[in-house]
Structures are given as C-alpha cells and as structure tokens.
Amino acid sequence: MSGYIKRTAIVLIVLIAAALVLNIAARDIIGDRNTERNVVVQRITREISQTIEGTEVTEESLRDAVDTVFYRRVTEWEQLYGCDSAPEDVDIIMTGEADGSDADIIGGNDTLICGIYDGDRLVALAVHRFGRSVYERIVTVMNAALIVCAAVVLVYSLWVYRRILLPFERLSDRPERMARGDLEEKLPERRDRYLGKFVWGMNMLADKLGHDRQTILKISLDRERTMTALAHGIKTPVANIKLMCEAISTGLYSKDGSINEEDAKLAARIDKNADDIHAIVLQLLDTSGSVIYDFDPHTSPFYRKEIARRITEEYGRRLEIARIPFEIKSKGDVMINSDIDGILRILRQLMDNAVKYGDGTGIVLDLDKTDEGHFISVRNKGTPLPESELPFVWGSYWRGSNSEGIEGSGVGLYEARCIARALGGDIRMRTYDDMTETELMLPL
To answer: What is this structure's pTM?
Structure first.
C-alpha cells in the first residue's frame, strides 16, 4: 500500500515539475519577445517623429503620420519582426508642453506607450497595443492541461485506493486465516463487484476446504472405530495363545506331565510373538482415540481489544442476520502475551458451538483478568448437557446427547483444549439451568 502511495506521489511531482519547467521556459521566451517589442516600438515611434519633424504638429497630422508609418506598412513590420512582436494597433494621445526626459517606454505585456517628440518637445504619446502572445496562449493551455491531469491522477488514485486497494488489504489476511483453520466466515459480497471473482473464489475455496476437512474427520472416525474393533478383537485370541504357550512350556498337555524341551522352545517363541502383537494392540488402542491437530504457538503481546474486534468482524454480521443477540463484555484493555491466532481458533469453536447448540436468544463473550490469569468465556442460552456428560466433552470424536440432527465431528472441543494447553492454559465448561458457559483460561 505504501508503494502505491509513493508511486502516485511521484506522478504528481513529475507533473508539477513539468509545469515549473514549462513556465520557466515560457518566461524566458516571453522576456525575449518583450525585448523585440521594445525595439519595434522605438523604431515605429522614431519614424513617426521623423515624419512630423518641421511641420505643424496637430492631432490630424500625427494620425496621418501613424497611418503612413504603421498602418500602410503593417505587413512589412510583421515580416520584419514577426506577428508576435509587431503591434496590432497604434493610437495617439495628445499632450501639452513637456520635458523630453521621460522618453522611456512604459506599459504592460499587451500595451507599450512611447513618447513622440518634435525635437526635444514631447507632443504626443503613441499607444502600441499587441495581441496576446501565442506563447502565452500555449502556456495557459499547457498549465490548464497539467492541472487537469494532476486532478485526474489524484482523483483516480484515491478512487482506486478506496474501492480496490483498501478493501483488498482488508482481505489480504484471509488466506492465512484459512490456513489456520478459520473456514466458517465468508467474505462479504460488494456492490461494485470489483473483487467479485476473488471473493467468490475465496468463499468457494473455504467451502471446499471445509468439506474436505469434514470428509477427513469422518474417515478418521471410521478408522478409529475400525482400529478399536480390530484391537479388541485381537486381544482375546492373543491372550488365549499366551495361555496355550504357557501350558505347553509346563508340559500340561503331555501324557506323563513331562516337559518337552523342543516344544517348550517353540512355545517361548510363539509367546514372544504374542507379546509383540499385544504391544501393537495397545499402541492401536492408545492412538485410535486421538486426533492429529496442527498448531505451533507463536507468542507475542497484543491488546485484548484486538480479540473483541476480530470476533466482531467475523461473527457480528452473521449473528445479526441470524437475529441472535450478541454482546461483548470487556473490563478495560489489558495486554496479553500469547498467540492471538490460537486464541481466536479456540473462540471460533466456542462461538460455533454457541450458535449450533444454543436456542438463539443470546450469546455473550466476556473478557476479564484476575490475579490468576486472563479469562475469556462464551455463554449461550439453551438446554445444557447433563452434568454426567461434561467430563467427556473434551474427548475426540465424542458428541453429546444434544447433538442429534446437528452437523459435527466431535473433535472441535478436543482441539480447543489441546491448543489451550499448548498456550499454557486450559478450558472448562459449566452448565446452569438454561445456560452453558465455556471458559478459556490463559496465564498472565
């Protein structure tokens, strides 16, 4: 984003520099033109003075002299000095007696006034009027064009920033959040639809990842059930084999009760293999009930209000559409030194459970701090789980009696507790008459 602002600033600086260079160059050209105009004015005025020299000076004679020197020779003056340097009109202003010391040319860019003398006597003023210089018109047009270009660049850059870059920057962390397991929140559609295909694609990807995750969890559940059934099915035959090996090694099956050394050695080998099978069975039973979750904590300090802001962004609109009242209670804004992504991953699971298993009459997110640590709880109204089921809610693939007809895999709370413990805290659930509270505890 800063690179875009820098490039826009560079374009504006280039336009401003171009305007400065253009005006400086035009000023030099116009200065040279004014010098030529002074030369032309002096020559025309001098010839008018020479024409009336030795005659009776009247306004009519002066105008005749102007007509002879200038108007009848306009083409000559323009060819000699150029249309831009030759005046378009010369007028006469009669004066009284005056000293000839004020013979300097006065006037502006479009008008030059020069004295007409009869000897040393100032008899009139010649007013030379010029048309607007072509250079001035070019400079005016170019300045206007550069101003318009700068305005267009600035307005268009602001439009691109507000309509495209700023919304995209807000969505830029979405892939990372999806990689961390946040698949529930969908990106909102925009009316302008400039990012429509991107938003549609990201939402489609989230749906696909969520579907794949549910498929993997179902496969894992089937695997767990199969492994459990297989392990329990193998345990009884293995125990029987060990008993038979012990009977053979002690001569229980011989007619005279004596021990056959060869049979005893073979029974010992079978017994060892049975022990190996028994160890594998125990390993299967130990791993079949667990879920592999991917979480590597990265601890860094952040303010607690960031949790409230992120949860509001993710769930505020969804709960508003579902007409579920949602309230966040936070006592102050303290610093937490933990992994905010891990905390949000836990809270997403708790919020999703509150939406799925609550009665829709209200959800409260409470953030607090005591001498014992940070406490973040999610409370929802609805029929709670029986007290007897609470110890089992943290087990993998376990679902409560209130989950009938509700989609789920039974691993969310298991993963939430694993993440909480990886962060040095823990998570617990309490039930009341018509409310369930799940509380995350984090160390100071």
So the answer is: 0.51
